[in-house]
């Protein structure tokens, strides 16, 4: 059963007693919001980019994004860049797979960000979501809906992190930020590590 998360809310990634997830998919979906103009409404294509930053405690260790599709150890993989979005309500436009069983032990958290590579603000985006899916079953575990738009061009969406008992948890962050690339968002990530 999927959990709709609010900002700051956490959810355990344990499947059941003694069971843990092995591979999760962080999916990002969005549509360009229609803009009212003199000749009716129309939409501009928006290129949002999903990135996953791997941290050893508070130190960046690796990153997966549209120009580096796989982490150095192979445990995190981006499925490819979508330049326009709009796959449909509930569908993912970009996905990042995390093989939790093979994430190196020194990596304590994986932070997922979204940035508007073309520089449009989130006020021009609608139906944006970030969701976590059990890749082995296809079941959606958690969903964070990006609501409210805003003048920002980046978003610290969520993170998965080790819970101290050998398992993993997910936390919805939903913090707005300024930036067109994951590098621009690094200072905004710091408070959430």
UniProtKB/TrEMBL annotation:
Transmembrane segments: none annotated. CDD domains: TerD_like. InterPro entries: Stress/Tellurium_Resist (IPR051324), TerD (IPR003325). Coiled coil: none annotated. It comes from the Bacteria. Residues 1-180 form the TerD domain. Pfam families: TerD. This is TerD family protein. It comes from Kitasatospora putterlickiae.
């Amino acid at each position: 059963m999927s959990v709709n998360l609010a900002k700051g809310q956490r959810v355990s990634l344990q499947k059941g007693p003694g069971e843990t997830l092995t591979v999760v998919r962080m999916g990002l979906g969005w549509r360009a919001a229609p803009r009212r103009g003199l000749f009716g409404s129309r939409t501009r294509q928006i290129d949002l980019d999903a990135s996953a930053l791997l941290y050893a405690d508070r130190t960046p260790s690796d990153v997966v994004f549209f120009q580096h599709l796989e982490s150095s150890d192979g445990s995190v993989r981006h499925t490819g860049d979508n330049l326009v979005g709009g796959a449909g309500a509930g569908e993912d436009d970009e996905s990042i797979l995390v093989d939790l069983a093979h994430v190196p032990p020194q990596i304590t958290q994986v932070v997922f960000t979204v940035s508007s590579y073309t520089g449009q603000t989130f006020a021009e985006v609608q139906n944006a979501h970030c969701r976590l899916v059990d890749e082995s079953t296809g079941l959606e575990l958690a969903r964070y809906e990006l609501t409210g738009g805003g003048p920002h061009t980046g978003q610290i969406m969520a993170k998965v992190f080790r819970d101290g008992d050998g398992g993993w948890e997910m936390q919805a962050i939903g913090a707005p930020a300024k930036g067109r690339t994951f590098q621009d968002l690094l200072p905004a990530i710091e408070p959430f590590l």
